[in-house]
Structures are given as C-alpha cells and as structure tokens.
From TrEMBL, chains A, B:
CDD domains documented for this protein: cinA (cd00885)
InterPro entries: CinA (IPR050101), CinA-like_C (IPR036653), CinA_C (IPR008136), CinA_KH (IPR041424), Competence-induced_CinA (IPR008135), MoaB/Mog-like_dom_sf (IPR036425), MoaB/Mog_dom (IPR001453)
Species classification: Bacteria, Pseudomonadati, Bacteroidota, Flavobacteriia, Flavobacteriales
Residue ranges of every copy of the MoaB/Mog domain listed in the record: 4-171
Protein's name in the database: CinA-like protein
Family to which the UniProt record says this protein belongs: Belongs to the CinA family.
Pfam families named among the record's database cross-references: CinA, CinA_KH, MoCF_biosynth
Organism: Acidiluteibacter ferrifornacis
Domain of life assignment: Bacteria
Length: 416, 416
C-alpha cells in the first residue's frame, strides 16, 4: 500500500528549513508496510493546499500532510481543510482543557489565539496532541484518508507514535513487514559490506532484503521480509542475524535503533560501575550523549570540559611541560586527561577527547580532523587511539564522541 | 518568476536520505529572484519521472530536477529525458575527455560505464561537471526549460554555481525577492504575535509577507517582498524591521538564521570576556551549543558537569546542607553552582543548570520539567530563573540550555 506526503510551508520552499519530517514519516510508515510514492512541498496558500491534496488523492488513498497548523495568521491549513471537506469548526472541550493544562504547566499566560486551537473541524477524527496546541486531524471520506499534523518535528513525531500509526494500521490492510536492525559501531559501511559479502549472498534465497544505513560512527544493517506469516519470517530473520553475529561480533552492539549510548548505559548498569568524562574537542557532546539516556545519573558522575589549557592543567592535572612539548592534541595530553578526571570524579572508567575540530586551527603535523581519544580503566590502564577525521566541525565532534563511546563499549564487553 | 524542483530517487522516499539539495537550490534561486512554488520527490521510475515533469511543466516554465544520473542501472533519468524530449544520445568528446581526466587525477581504473556518462542527449545544452561524471543537462522547448543535475550534493552545488544560475538569469527575466529574518529568543510564537499584532497589520499595505518559524526556544520572524525594485524593497523591509526592534527589543538577538550561541559568542568576543558553565540537567548540551561555534575557545573556558551531588559539593562548592535542605533542583543549588564554577574556572560569567529532565524523577513539588538556571556576573551578582517545562527529556534539555544562553544574552546586551 502507498501513501503520499505533503509538507506545507514557505520555509521549506525558500530553503530556510530542511524537510526532515518527510524522512521521519517515510521511515515510520515503511515499518508498518506503507511505502511513500511521492513527497510534495507546497506553500501556505489555500489554492496550493487544495490543489496538492486533490492531486494526491487522485493517485492514492492515504495523504499525510504536515505544517500550517500554528496559531498565527499565516497558518491556514486547518481552515482550508475544513472548507475542502465541507464542514465547520466546532469547539472540542477536552482539547481546550488540554491546551489550558499545557499553559498552566508551563506557567504561561494563555491567549485567545491559543484557545482557538481547540476549534477544530466537525466530521473529523481528532488525534490529541499532549505536547503542543495543534491537534492532529484525520479526515475520512469514501475510504480515502487525509491526515494533517503540525510541522514542528517533535509534535509530528509525538502524533505519529500516539495515534496516527496505529490508526493507519487499523484502517488499511497493510502487509506484514518484519524488520530487524543490527546496530554496529567501529567499522565503515564498505568495510562491513566486504566482510559479510558471502553471508549477504545467502539472503536472496530467504527473500530477505538488506539495507545499510550509515550515520556518524554507526552503521545500521537492516533486514526485512514482506510476509503474511509473521512467525516464520521472524525465525528466518533471527537465524540470519545469529549468523551475522558470528562473522562480526566485535562491531555489533545492539538491535533495532538502540543508540550506542543506551547500550553502554546498560553495560555500565549491569556491571555496577561508573563513568566520567574529560572533554576538549567534543566540548560537552560526549557528556550530552551519555546524559540523553533517562536514568544515566545512576552510572554517570560528571565531566570536566577543559576547553582551555589552564583547565587541563588545574582541574585535570595535565603536566604543563607535556602540553608545551606535545601540545593539547596528543597522546600524552589525552591520556593524562583521562587519568586526571578518573581520579578527580572517583569513577571506575574515564573517557577523554582532544582534537582539532576545525574548520580552522590545523597544522601540517596535526591537520583539522586530528583527534585523540582515551579510556582509563579501573585497573590503572589507559587505552588511547588516534582518529583522522575530516574538515567538518559538527561531524568531527559527533564522530569523536561516538568513537570514544565505542572504546568504552569494547572494554566493557571484554570485561563483563 | 517561479520554478519547481523535482528530486528523483527512492532513498528520499524511504526516508534513508534527507533531502538537503532542495533547500540549497531554493536558497540560491531565491537570491536571483526565482521562487520555488513546489518541490516534488519521486521514485526512480520512467513513468513517475515523465508524469512529474509533465505536471510541473503545466504549472511553470522552469523545472529543475536532481538525481538518477549515476552510472548504475537504477539511474534512468538521462534515458527518460532523452526519450521525453524526443532526441537521441550522442557522444560529447570534450565531456569524455573530462571524465578521463577525473579518473586519471584520482588514479582510478576507468570502466566502460564511466565513459558512457559522456553519451548525452542531442538538442540539449550540456553544463560540464568538472568534479564528477554526471553532466548537467538543459533542455529548452518553446520557452520552457527542464534542467537535470546529479543528486550528489557537492556536484549539484558545483553545477548550480558553474553554469546553471547564470544561464537562468540570462534566459528568464527574474524579479527580486528580498527576505529578512529576525531572530528572537525568550518568548513563544503566540506571545510575540500578540505583542506585534498592530505592527503586523501594517505589513499588508507594504506588500510584505510575514512568517513565524519556531524551534526550541527560538522564534524566527521572516519578512519577504517580491519586487522589481530591490533597493526600494530592501528599504521598506529595513524600516519595518527597525519598527519591530522598538516593539520587542528584549527578544531580538540577531538576523538571518544566526544561532543564539553564535550571537552570544560575538557579544563575548567584542566585550573581551570569558564564560564557563556548570551543568546538571543539561548534561553537557549547553557546553556543546557554545563549543559548536568555531573560535569559541577564545571566550569559552570549560565546564564542570556535576551530574552527581558529590561533584556538586566537591568541585563546585555547593553546601551539602543546602543540598539536603533544598535539593539539587533549587535556587540555592543552582546559584551556588554558578558561583562555584565562576571561581574555579576564573571566568567573567558563569551559567548553571539544574532540573528534572525526565521522563521520571519528578515529585509533586518538583514535577518533571522543573528547571533552575542561573548566571553569575563579574560584579558578584547571581541572577536565577525557574522554568516549568514539559515531560520530554530531549526537549527539556534543549530548552533549558537555550534559556540559560538567553539569560547571558540579556545580561551582556545590558552591559556592553
């Protein structure tokens, strides 16, 4: 079964906003067996909205629109759909109450325009939004469905996960698609593909489709089967995953979109050990990844972000003579940072990073993208590693943090 | 004048690739007075490509397509366009020579499929690609133009800047579009809209279009004019922006997509002062925002991330009796954290955060989303603020960090 996505908003058409919503929705819909046949981005005008919906409905039974549901005058999607579906706005008291709660919780004054967000079309199934004022709307006429959601990414994601996907599954007969995603870190896509090519060649005869999905420092290997026999399909996939695990055990850290920082959190929790960090080039991003996991306060003590050399010397005990001799981006410095923060925060494991994130600051000897990472362990060892990354500051920060986490993962899986 | 963009490729429709090309093209085209009226993403099939081009040509005279020009079998854009425009492939010797040069330069063996990239449509203007094997193609029939470029972002960008934009300017009479985006922080979209509604009502008579673009803690207000008279339009927008500045001076921090952390970096640089941070609930994200700006090492010294109470006491000098009495999430604690890190890192300004990020850990008195932020200033004052956010951990971390940055911004703009 297919669907079309329509994103509404001038900000995409003038290039100010990159449309990340469509990729999120496409991925989530693919998982429930709905493939996207077209994505259309249009401006915030009544004529464009109506034209795009009419066209999409002529091709498919499911149209999913985002954007144009804010409280301000430039947002006209709700009024346009109300007119298009020949209905009228009525007040939904329970939605009004939710909106009031949101403002009370945040201790913000509520305005008339906010309350007007509870005026929604009659003859329309409302999908409540508990984290914003724009509700999701589900219009159904003669077996054809149009869904409208806000364009704010986290609100759209909330509605997808809390109503939209379930209602699509219940309304349309979607084929069963079984997916299993194997999460890997520590090797690039082409390296992995080469290592597992013989195994990959056996997937065809099982009707298993494979996809490599790389992102900073992590490569996901996704296996999928389209089948009505869920149980059998699940068994076939599980068997192949077991085989894969035997070929690349050192790279696999988890399954089904588990972030590396979550897998490490679980390893630390079950081993009953703590970790701290000392960051230079990653500037807090490593700590941010670790603390993005709920409950991380059980194993994460804290960090010293030593952006300046003074902080490296005074707070982490890096020897000033070594900073002079080897520089801040060196094996000597990064190892002393790890040891220093381990002692200071009294943790079992300590990670550190120091590098030239860029875009400037490189030298012939240490070009932009030169990064050292280190791990201090409970038995007094320090493991360090040099990375040679690229010119992009943001990506260098991300990849350094992931590489540091992977160093810790390898050590934890070896020990526990 | 308007144009439409068509992106061709299954990777976008399955959500594997986020379409960043469209935003790049839209921005570049806007600057030469071409506004994008629609962006359509379709799959790599002949029927879809032809249908999308026909539809787009029925609405506009300029269609710009990317994708599907690679050497592999699944890339069929070139063959499809050759058929659609009723022409044939011929070998372009100079393009063949360029492709050979590229492979020689990279020291790679050249394959037959690579050389076939020099077979291009007759009756078509070729835009040479010096950094890849897929040429740009410009088809022109009865005043209507279809441009085809590769989907690899840096190759598309190369072709836009080396041929496409100039040829569009030379071929079409393009009006000017002037945009100005005002960046605000510290107030929500509806609060701002209410504060500036009288001013907003005056925009119509100037033919100025307004859009509100909210994201975590920041609301962008974008003004646009379509006009032949660039200078006059710029003046009209500038005048309205000046008026706006007088209505909401405390919320405006910059223009044209400048991130808040960049604006603050500039304020710190020009004042010649330094900043440090002490983070609990934001767990490194505040430091990450600050250090995501190149050159931040000139004003950012570092951070103590005190995720545990021990670190708050030992490293930041928070009194254990206050931690017991008021808790970690309290005005007392967050103020002591700011003072402690200011002294420790010897910085002029220090920011601190402490809160219940969630999703668990809330109490009746301090529900999830309760966050305290504080700022210690050079003259010994400490300013603190309580936020009441929501249930989402990731969003609470983001919004707390932005609110802390905004506290610093308000203080810096007051002082310098």
């Amino acid at each position: 079964m297919t669907a079309e996505i329509i994103t509404i908003g001038d900000e995409i058409l003038i290039g100010q906003t990159i449309d990340t919503n469509s990729a999120y929705m496409a991925k989530a819909l693919n998982l429930i067996g709905v493939s996207i046949s077209r994505i259309t981005s249009i401006s915030d005008t009544k004529e464009e909205i109506i034209r795009a919906i009419q066209e999409a409905q002529s091709r498919t039974n499911l149209v999913i629109a985002t954007g144009g549901l804010g409280p301000t005058r430039d947002d006209i999607t709700k009024l346009t759909l109300t007119e298009y579906f020949n209905t009228e706005l009525i007040t939904y008291p329970e939605i009004r109450a939710t909106i009031q709660e949101i403002f009370e919780r945040r201790n913000l004054p509520i305005l008339e325009v906010n309350l007007m967000q509870a005026n929604l079309p009659k003859d329309c199934f409302i999908i409540p939004n508990k984290i914003g004022t724009a509700s999701g709307m589900w219009f159904e006429r003669n077996g054809k469905v149009v869904i409208s959601m806000p364009g704010v990414p986290y609100e759209m994601e909330y509605l997808m996960q809390n109503g939209v996907l379930d209602k699509i599954k219940a309304t349309f007969k979607t084929p069963s698609i079984i997916h299993k995603t194997v999460m890997t870190s520590g090797a690039g896509e082409s390296f992995l593909a080469d290592r597992i090519k013989d195994w990959e060649n056996t997937l065809d005869q099982e009707d298993i489709h494979i996809a490599y999905l790389p992102s900073s420092g992590v490569v996901k290997i996704r296996l999928s089967i389209v089948s009505e026999d869920r149980e059998n399909a699940q068994e076939r996939i599980d068997r192949k995953v077991m085989e894969l695990l035997q070929i690349i055990p050192e790279f696999v850290y988890g399954y089904d979109d588990e972030p590396l920082e979550k897998a490490i959190g679980n390893l630390l929790l079950s081993a009953g050990v703590t970790v701290g960090t000392a960051e230079s080039c990653t500037g807090g991003y490593l700590a941010h990844l670790i603390t993005s996991i709920p409950g991380s306060s059980s194993y994460y003590q804290g960090s010293v972000i030593s952006y300046s050399n003074e902080v490296k010397i005074n707070e982490l005990g890096v020897k000033s003579i070594d900073l002079l001799k080897y520089g801040a981006v060196s094996q000597q410095t990064v190892e002393q940072m790890a040891k220093g923060v381990k002692k200071k925060l009294k943790v079992d494991y300590a990670l550190s990073t120091s590098g030239v994130a860029g875009p400037d600051g490189g030298t012939d000897e240490k070009p932009v993208g030169t990064v050292w990472i280190a791990l201090a362990t409970p038995d007094g060892r320090v493991i360090s590693k040099k990375l040679q990354l690229e010119k992009n500051r943001g990506r260098n920060i991300q990849r350094s943090a992931i590489a540091a986490l992977n160093l810790l993962r390898l050590e934890l899986t070896r020990n526990y």
